[in-house]
Here is the input.
Amino acid sequence: MYSLIVAVISIALGVGIALSTIYYGGSAFTGSSAKTAEATLINSAQQISGATALFRTENSGNNAANIAELITENYLQAVPTAPNDATGAWEIGGVNDSFAYIQLSTAVPATPAAVSDNAICVRAEADNGPTTNDEATVADLASITLATGVPFDCLGVTGEGLYFAFKM
Here is the structure.
């Protein structure tokens, strides 16, 4: 009888701990997926940035036309993977082809402030600090610019959607 009472109490304690972990730890679990997606984006962009720098060094300062050229010329093995949150593939562009960017959403933010509704963009804002321009919108991808000292950010592109841009 004593063993049965101990077993029931142990099961009840285990269920209580599991429920409290789910209840109090839920935000930690959801926040970590956004952080993982942001880290994946940054790592992928750094691979593209490094490959682009090597390409420029070995090609008299000329930029690669696109990521396919970096793969063809063996500066990258393949297009870096994108997190499940992304809807597009990595591309090179911006002012003087100085950015790697990827589309996160086809939904165009209703207002510049709505850029921060995306979980990855919230993480980017937190990591970039107060100098970020996360609420910026640009007319097209060729006009991507970020504030000085901001290595990456989210931008709403008029008529296209939400993008993650990384300075190379």
Remarks:
- The chain has a mean pLDDT of 79.
